[in-house]
Amino acid sequence: MLNQALDHARANRGRYLNQLFDFLRIPSISTQAEHKPDVQRAAEWVAADMRRVGLTNVQVVPTAGNPIVYGEWLGAGEEAPTVLIYGHYDVQPVDPLELWQSPPFEPQIRDGLIYARGVSDDKGQMFIHIKAIESMLSANGRLPVNVKLIFEGEEEIGSINLEAFVLSHREMLAADVSLVSDTGMITPDQPLIVYGLRGMCYMEFRIKGPKRDLHSGGYGGTVYNPAQLVAEIIAALHDEKGTVTIPGFYDRVRPLTDEERRAINSAPYSLEQWQSETGLRKPWGEPEYTLHERIGARPTCEVNGIWGGWQGEGGKTIIPAEAGAKISMRLVPDQDPQEIARLFAEFVRERVPDDMQVQINDLAGGWWAITPLDSPAMRAASRAYEATWGVPPVFAREGGSIPIVATFQKELNAPAVLMGFGLRDDAAHAPNERFREDHFYKGIDTVIHYFHYLAEQR
Ligand code: BES
Ligand code: MN
Ligand code: MN
Q1: What is the DSSP code string of 350-361?
Q2: Of 220, 337, 339, 355, which has the highest C-beta tally within 10 A?
Q3: Contact indicator for 363, 326 with CB cutoff of 8 Å
Q4: Helix, strand or coil, per DSSP, at residue 441
Q5: What pLDDT, in 10s, does the model give residues 259-300?
Q6: pLDDT tens-digit profile of 152-182?
């Protein structure tokens, strides 16, 4: 059974790759309203493929935002484990477009890398699951496990509508384990199972000062400049060592045990690798924590965008009427995203004089997640990686966020397995996003092995 499925996957690589290319051509950017029809089209494309491979009860479920795609195959029987597979078909915006070597929605292979927006995050990775299922169903007419697949179109904007869907469809989504391929490996030779994700609190604030832009000659030196105030607020968010200064920010942060620090730092990630990935020489941030700890286990506060005043060609001597910033905070156990949003808002508000106006928006929030290391589901994942890549995976906490993972664990009471095939260097969210072609094929093989071992462990 296992070998037939693997053979089928191998024999159909070219066809699977062509299908992935069709999927990648749809510009399903969730953050931009003008792409709403494309997001819808991507959802329908995924559903059509799921129906074609033999999944049942396939639905494109409308939400207040972008649709959720659902499908299942429950023919393995009640004794067999049920796997809930999650991924996202929405992608990040493409700008700055001029830095792409080939157009973001015209996939191209160069040196064994598939270049396209979303190929690593997360279209290529979610598609691996559909193709693993197709290989098993085509080769054997059945799967050794029951599967439920749920794909959303709002992950990159904070999974706004998915949580409510999960809460109202507990029965439908009930599973023994959730399986997510939306993370990375350490290197192409060293698989990784991520067992911790950070949470998120994404805030935006806009400050309005004078009733219109003012001539900076006529009023400069008499008016509190909103752009300056934004800069002062941002500058006040950290001390010189990189510690966040929002009062109460660290109050709920669970201290790292020595054992955990040892485990976190055992995954290979060198200063040299960080340097080559970033193009920088010197890391910045809390000096008493290692790079691994700062990324995986410490909360942060980052300026994602800042605006105000004249940005066009040449100079324009004004005091801008308005300025603002977008700030995201990565959260760790046991920080509460809503509480952090409140503390942040207080921090900003108390710095704005009462004749100026401030508007503070909570753009996205999500809980951190820690997944258990000692479940049968995790052991099967470890065996599946070893069978495909020749070495067992290492385990590490990651810095990114996938808000729904915590919800799955809490509401469905099922451990999550984060089986990623990307690389840190895939340029997710950046120009020239890529995904190794061989990781697409090896990913399919790994998932086939996973279903096999998971069923065997029962
Ligand atoms: N796939 C990433 C999350 C990720 C990246 C996990 C790297 C582990 C390592 C996901 O698509 C993502 O970008 N999530 C957003 C969530 C946010 C918008 C709430 C993130 O982490 O910024
Ligand atoms: Mn992703
Ligand atoms: Mn992403």
Answers
A1: TTS-TTSEEEEE
A2: 337
A3: yes
A4: helix
A5: 889 988 887 788 998 999 899 999 999 999 999 999 999 999
A6: 999 999 999 999 999 999 999 999 999 999 9
**Residue identifier of the C-alpha nearest atom 4 of ligand 1:** 400
* 145 vs 141: CA distance, rounded Å: 12
CA–CA separation, 198 and 210 (whole Å): 39
- DSSP H helical ranges for 317-403: 337-349, 376-389
Atom number of ligand 1 nearest to Cα 159: 19
- Please identify which residue in the block is written with the tokens 């300026």: 303
Q: Please, are residues 132 and 451 in contact by the beta-carbon 8 Å criterion?
A: yes
Helix (H, G, I), strand (E, B) or coil at 84: strand
Handedness of CA 286, 292, 293, 297 (dihedral sign): positive
Angle at which helices 13-24 and 437-456 cross, to 10°: 110
Neighbours of ion ligand 3 (CB under 5 A): 121
- CA–CA–CA angle 443, 447, 452 (5° rounding): 150
Beta bridge partners of 150: 70, 86
Determine which residue's CA is closest to atom 20 belonging to ligand 1.
401
Count Cβ atoms within 10 A of the Cβ of residue 43 and give its class: 0-12 exposed, 13-18 middle, 19 or more buried: buried
For ligand 1, pick from 182, 183, 407 the residue to mutate: most ligand atoms within 8 Å of CB. 182
Helix (H) or strand (E) holding 446: helix 437-456
Residue 239's DSSP bridge partners are none
CA pair distance 16, 440, nearest whole angstrom = 9
Which DSSP helix (H) or strand (E) runs through 22? helix 13-24
Cα(429) to ligand 1 centroid in Å equals 9
Tokens of 163: 């949580």
Q: How far apart are CA 121 and CA 183, in angstroms?
A: 8
Residue type, 25: R
Surface-to-core class of residue 305, CB atoms within 10 Å of its CB (0-12 exposed, 13-18 middle, 19+ buried):
exposed
Residue 458 has pLDDT above 80, yes or no: no
Going by C-alpha positions, the residue among 64, 120, 3, 171 that lies closest to residue 435 is: 120
Question: Collapsing DSSP states into helix, strand and coil, what is residue 396?
Answer: strand
